[in-house]
Amino acid sequence: MDVDSDSSEEVITAYYYYRRNQKNRRFWVHPYLEKNFHHRLFIAARELNFSDTKFLCFYRMSKESYLYLVNLISPAINKRDTNMRECVNAEERILITLR
Q1: Is the pLDDT reported for residue 48 higher than 80?
Q2: Is the pLDDT of residue 84 over 70?
Q3: Is residue 19 domain-resident?
């Protein structure tokens, strides 16, 4: 065996071990989460918007206080959609924080 074949075998072996130890990242968002995208907490909040008492019990805040908080904080926490995924809007962020 000559030096070139030994070094190429070492490179191939090193590459094999490198690839074996890498994680397979197949998707940006797990299919389970993508499937349940439309069944998030924000959708539940829209349904609770019809009842003041349920909204108050669920978020421990009146709707008027919530809307005031959204108007106050949303300019500071707004994000924009990208080509990769949709952003979490300000109303959703506040509801998640409150819950």
Answers
A1: no
A2: yes
A3: no
